[in-house]
Design goal:
By secondary structure, the chain is of the alpha/beta class. Helix content is about 25%, strand content about 20%. It contains 5 helices and 11 strands. The strands form 2 sheets. Strands 3, 4, 5, 6, 7, 8, 9, 10 and 11 form a 9-stranded mixed sheet that branches. The protein has a two-stranded parallel ribbon with strand order 1-2. The protein is globular, with a radius of gyration of 16 Å.
Length: about 230
């Protein structure tokens, strides 16, 4: 059974290893409710890693259906991977419209693997709610430079996904990869904690990790959509 979230709630493997694995995103899922908590505006983010399972115009609706049925309010949609922009501006604008029609926010996620890759500025005006820089494979100095470039030229919301909880920058959302048991020490208000869906993980373990992250930080990100569906959590 899959762990669902109702509305806005209160309260190593990681993005740095975004390799390609065989998967299917068409599995039938069933939602269960969490215990009710006070309403808040915490982001509840579903991350789409194109390396695990491609999401495009042919199956974008399935992504939206999963996100809304399980209570996510934000999608981090990977559109740039290892130096390659995966979609046209027209495609991106349509994704944004479709997400907004379902009441979802959508951030374009840019996955960087080396310091020679640059931010594709052509995506700045496609209607997205924000841009997320996924830079865990890069040194801190390179992450700082990329964020400075984004924040100086982009007027939307900014996010960073990183393994460095004390990264010396201030995006609107700082998502820390708190996937391992020892990473709980980094979960606190001010950062968005994250949970990785892993093969063999029980629903109970996933739910406990999710709820702890949500209750003790400023939001939660689930990595990733393909594995959430594939493993039936």
């Amino acid at each position: 059974m899959i762990f669902a979230i109702i509305g806005y709630l209160l309260a190593s493997t990681s993005l740095r290893g975004q390799g390609v694995t065989s998967s299917s995103s068409s599995s039938t899922t069933q939602s269960v409710s969490t215990s009710e908590t006070s309403a808040s505006s915490k982001p509840i983010i579903l991350y789409v890693n194109q390396g695990n399972g491609a999401v495009n115009g042919s199956n974008f609706g399935e992504l939206l259906s999963t996100a809304t049925s399980q209570g996510f309010n934000t999608i981090f949609f990977q559109i740039y991977r290892s130096g390659t922009l995966l979609f046209t501006s027209s495609d991106l604008a349509q994704f944004v419209t479709s997400a907004h029609d379902q009441g979802l926010k959508i951030f374009f996620a840019l996955y960087f693997t080396n310091t020679t890759q640059t931010i594709p500025t052509s995506i700045y005006s496609d209607g997205e709610d924000g841009i997320s820089l996924d830079m865990s494979t890069l040194p801190i100095a390179a992450q700082t430079v990329l964020f400075d470039q984004l924040s100086s030229s982009y007027s939307g919301k900014t996010a960073i996904t990183t393994t460095y909880p004390s990264l010396p920058v201030s995006p609107d959302l700082l998502v820390v990869e708190t996937y391992l048991p020892g990473d709980q020490q980094y979960i606190h208000p001010g950062i968005v904690a994250s949970v990785e869906v892993s093969p063999g993980e029980t629903t109970q373990t996933y739910q406990q990790q999710f709820q702890y992250a949500l209750n003790n930080s400023s939001g939660v990100m689930v990595f990733d959509y393909d594995h959430l569906v594939k493993y039936g959590l």
